[in-house]
Design goal:
- This protein is of the alpha+beta class.
- 51% of the residues lie in helices and 16% in strands.
- A hairpin with a 5-residue loop joins strand 5 and strand 6.
- Helix 5 crosses helix 8, helix 11 runs antiparallel to helix 12 and helix 19 packs parallel to helix 23.
- The longest helix is centred in the first third of the chain and has 34 residues.
- The radius of gyration is 34 Å and the shape is extended.
Length: 722
């Protein structure tokens, strides 16, 4: 007996974990599959031999603990093997190819997908983590088991944070709250989410956690009697209508209590005074019948009922929520759902493995998860870098939904605070890019209008329309933000290439040369010394003002392309001016200091990275521009320039009641709008105002100024050109 006792005492922690794993696997896997999992353990133990965690235990204990969590979710054999081997590529000399050969390619792909990137040339830890998360989502798009392994891995890491330094604990906990807990929530895995939140809260704020936990323990004793009374009352009343159900007092999550205290600025007593119950029944019909019963039993609070059965949350969560005034005057929060809905609410996509059934509930859940992942993959393709992708992801992970209808009656979920633009991009990216207005419940509204529950939205599009950078101020969804940024980035690039070609052509024409006739070897030589891959990249640089078109043209035409080019006094080539319409877009902008309009004499200034800024010839800033020979070019207005352009007027008017209204109506009568009014000086007699008006050209502006001068209240009027 002593020998047996000694043997048990000397048993290693990893051996106990493997026995527990095999015991859990035996409930649903056959012997051959369990043997494969044991083989994976033996391979992993050998690979991690000599490696230990901060706590002092053998490293292999961690992947086996992760595998146990997944086994409790009924993960398949390949998923379990991947969990056991998930760190071997990163932390040992084992390759993906080796894993595929010894086990199978599917296991190798899963292991590779959850492996962190160890050779990223990142500027910061944040970029490294962002790139890891981005890679994880790419892999999730192919196989949802990746996120299952990753969440189980993160859960065990959080459970064993004890040996880490305080700063490391806080950093890991923050990352868990920012990314992993919301992912678990988004995939409906509430059980894991609540564990991650509680562990992160404890790691980030240990003192607050302990104070709250102790306060809750003290309060529980006093509450038990009240909970028992309400439970028995609910059960007996529901059973009178011959309905079968289970009722349980729901323990509030410690982290959610802390969040309510923090954001609602209330004490623990106020939060804990809400008594929470769950009622589980057999059918959806029973849910609604029980709702009627509890509303007859206790008085419901208006506006506090939510039907997540008819309109499930984005993560597939279904339940009826209502808040009632209980027998002691306290609020009672009740959730009513079927047993199936409860299993889905706790396990989310894990239910795909955990509860194999004949109905299509699991498939619907899987479809929701896949739809979300498809949207994320679309986002990551258009994101500029990993940090931008993480920003988009965070926006998408915290939805508080409103439900709106399309003209055909389809329901679309949008985050609270979403605008018409968000809705347009949710329908389709092309509709978002071309939207100009919308009808909400048949009334015309602007694009920045916020959506409300139950409205019908019809988006109005136009062929000529394109996204405006200002839209980024009105959107809340990641898809809309990413779509706008991507369009503007590509549009600016195309505009810059077009402008660059135009500028280079003009310089070459002045030298009696055409770009098409220049030998390709000369162009390639210039690209090489300019460190550009293609001619379009060089043209884009010219269009953005990073390279001077005259210097590029001179290099292309001189005998030695590699020779340095200097601007000499004798470089007086008769170049024709660049003709503009003022509507070119993002690479030709009109200076706000002097606001040039069609008909003005103008000058262009290269602003590196942004393109050409056009000034009025009389602008004080243009005098500075002229001193920089290499930075300016001659430009002139096109004869057919159309559109509306802002012009600034300085008015001295008598300070009388209705003066501004008289000025405004005169401007309006002459087909112009006031964009801005600023009062510079004012006394009892005079008011000096700056008024920005929209005009078509100099003739239009002259008419407006002449009519304003005729008003008896206007003392003096001048146009501001600098």
């Amino acid at each position: 007996m002593l020998e047996v006792a000694d043997t048990i005492e000397l048993e290693r922690p990893q051996d106990k974990l493997v026995r527990r794993l095999c015991s859990t696997l035996s409930d649903y896997l056959d012997k051959a599959q369990i043997d494969d999992c044991v083989r994976a353990y033996e391979f992993g133990a050998k690979a991690h031999s000599g490696q230990f965690r901060k706590s002092g235990e053998a490293y292999i204990c961690h992947p086996v603990a992760v595998a146990i969590s997944l086994a409790e979710m009924r993960m398949d054999a390949n998923g379990i093997m991947a969990a056991i081997l998930h760190d071997v590529i990163e932390d040992t000399g084992v390759s993906k190819k080796e894993i595929a050969k010894i086990f199978n390619p599917e296991v190798a792909e899963l292991v590779d997908a959850v492996t962190k990137l160890t050779k990223i040339d990142s500027k910061s830890h944040a970029e490294t983590q962002a790139e890891n998360v981005r890679k994880m989502f790419l892999a999730m798009g192919k196989d949802l088991r990746v996120i299952m392994v990753k969440l189980a891995d993160r859960l065990h890491n959080m459970q064993t944070l004890g040996a880490m330094p305080a700063e490391t604990k806080r950093r890991i906990a923050k990352e868990t709250l920012d990314i992993y807990a919301p992912i678990a929530n988004r995939l409906g895995m509430n059980n894991i989410r609540h564990k991650l939140e509680a562990l992160s809260f404890q790691a980030m704020y240990p003192r607050r956690y302990n104070i709250l936990e102790n306060a809750l323990k003290k309060a529980r004793g006093n509450r038990r009697k009240v909970i028992d009374v309400i439970e028995s009352t609910l059960k007996s009343r529901i059973s009178q209508d011959s309905l079968s159900c289970d009722v349980s007092g729901r323990e509030k999550n410690l982290y959610s209590i802390y969040q309510k205290m923090l954001h609602k600025k209330v004490s623990l007593t106020d939060v804990f005074d809400v008594y929470a119950f769950r009622i589980f029944c057999n059918t959806v019909d029973d849910c609604y019948r029980i709702l009627g019963i509890v509303h007859n039993l206790y008085k419901p609070i208006p506006g506090k009922f939510k039907d997540y059965i008819a309109l499930p949350k984005a993560n597939g969560y279904q339940s009826l929520h209502t808040i009632l005034i209980g027998p002691y005057g306290f609020p009672i929060e009740i959730q009513i759902r079927t047993h199936e809905m409860h299993r889905m609410a706790e396990s989310g996509i894990a239910a795909h493995w955990l509860y194999k059934s004949d109905d299509d509930k699991n498939d619907k859940f899987q479809d929701r998860a896949n739809e979300w992942l498809r949207d994320l993959l679309e986002l990551q393709q258009t994101a500029g870098d990993s940090l931008e992708f993480i920003d988009n992801l965070k926006i998408d992970l915290f939805p508080q939904e409103v439900f709106v209808f399309t003209p055909k009656g389809e329901i679309i979920k949008m985050p609270r605070g979403a605008s018409i633009i968000d809705f347009a991009y949710a329908v389709h990216t092309d509709i978002g890019n071309a939207c100009v207005s919308a009808r909400v419940d048949r009334k015309l509204v602007p694009l920045q209008t916020k959506l409300e529950n139950g409205v019908t939205v019809e988006v109005i599009t136009a062929i000529w329309a394109r996204p405006n950078p200002l839209w980024l101020n009105y959107v809340t969804t990641a898809k809309a933000r990413s779509g706008i940024r991507n369009y503007l980035k590509n549009f600016k690039q195309q505009e810059a290439i077009s402008l660059g070609r135009n500028l280079l052509d003009k310089e070459l024409q002045a030298m009696n040369v055409q770009l098409e006739n220049i030998d390709k070897s000369r162009i390639n030589a210039l690209l090489k010394i300019s460190d550009k891959q293609t001619l379009n990249e060089l043209l884009e640089d010219i269009g953005l003002g990073n390279k001077m078109p005259f210097l590029i043209a001179k290099r292309l035409t001189q005998s030695d392309v590699n020779a340095a080019v200097r601007l000499e006094d004798n470089d007086q080539i008769q170049r024709s001016p660049l003709v503009i319409k003022g509507t070119e877009g993002m690479v030709i902008t009109l200076a706000k200091c002097c606001r040039p309009i069609p008909g003005d004499s103008i000058i262009g200034f290269f602003n590196p990275g942004k393109g050409i800024v056009v000034h009025h010839h009389e602008c004080r800033n243009s005098n500075e521009v002229r001193k920089k020979q290499t930075s300016w070019l001659d430009v002139e207005w096109s004869q057919d320039a159309t559109g509306e352009f802002p012009a600034e007027l300085r008015l001295e008017v008598l300070n009388q009641r209705g003066s501004l209204a008289t000025v405004a109506s005169t401007i309006s009568e002459h087909d112009s709008n006031i964009e801005n009014v600023t009062v510079i000086e004012q006394d009892s007699r005079l008011s000096v105002d700056l008024i920005t008006v929209s005009v078509k050209d100099r003739v239009h502006l002259a008419k407006i100024m002449r009519k304003l001068k005729e008003l008896p209240i206007v003392i003096k009027i001048t146009r501001v050109k600098a």
